[in-house]
Write a structure and sequence with these properties.
With 221 residues, this protein is an alpha+beta fold. It contains five helices and seven strands; from the N terminus they run βββααααβββαβ.
Length: 221
């Protein structure tokens, strides 16, 4: 990720409700993650214990490898405020507070995922632990085969390029926040409005069919 730019682009919404199973009443948290480029959504339902277990897994990993180059990322995740256990977890106030803290925790979790994707590609020595972290996060959230997202500054030379779908040239007004012009790993550039629907269901470039493992939003530096 580029310093000073958002490292987590996915929008996350966590909502709490009271559920029951086999006579057991408990608090349940519905997580909805939305991709800003494709508007694709992923959702899952988790209980407090599932969040706690995931955090505990990363705590143990961090304790066993405190000097790892990935340790600062784990430290940031573990330093994110996390809700404590509660005697009345189904109270509305408790569920609301937990939902907010879980949302912040998940933002940091996705930041870890994106940073691990970078290390998978750039650092062979970190590929094994990075792949493990990505797998843990994917299993928890149920998000598989989801491209890495990032925003990257670009130069005014991008204004001489045309969208590979509509063939219109890029305009400076499209490049103010990194969410309206996207570049795929094959280097083809598109308007988000043109390619978003395609990428919602396919993991390839619509022009050359190269795999799309990353979607980069461009903004003028």
């Amino acid at each position: 990720m580029t310093d000073g730019l958002p490292s987590t682009l996915e929008a996350i919404d966590v909502r709490a409700n009271v559920a029951a199973k086999a006579g057991n009443v408990y608090a349940q948290y519905t997580v909805v993650i939305t991709c800003p480029f494709t508007q694709a959504r992923w959702s899952c339902r988790k209980r407090y214990s599932a969040f706690w277990q995931l955090r505990e897994t990363f705590r143990v990993i961090h304790a066993h490898a405190p000097a790892s180059p990935l340790a600062p990322l784990l430290h940031a995740l573990l330093a994110t405020p996390f809700p404590s256990k509660h005697l009345t977890p189904t109270r509305a106030r408790v569920m609301g507070e937990r939902a907010m803290l879980f949302q912040n925790f998940l933002l940091q979790l996705l930041h870890l995922r994106n940073a691990c994707w970078v290390n998978l590609a750039a650092s062979p020595s970190l590929a094994l632990p990075a792949a493990r972290y990505v797998a843990l996060i994917a299993d928890f959230l149920g998000i598989y085969d989801v491209p890495m997202l990032e925003i990257r500054p670009t130069t005014r030379a991008i204004l001489d390029e045309a969208c590979a779908i509509c063939l219109d040239y890029m305009h400076a007004t499209d490049l103010v926040d990194g969410r309206h012009v996207v570049q795929l790993p094959c280097r083809h550039v598109y308007h988000q409005r043109c390619v978003g629907q395609w990428l919602r269901t396919k993991r390839t470039c619509p022009l050359c069919r190269d795999p799309t493992t990353q979607i980069t939003g461009l903004l003028l530096a």
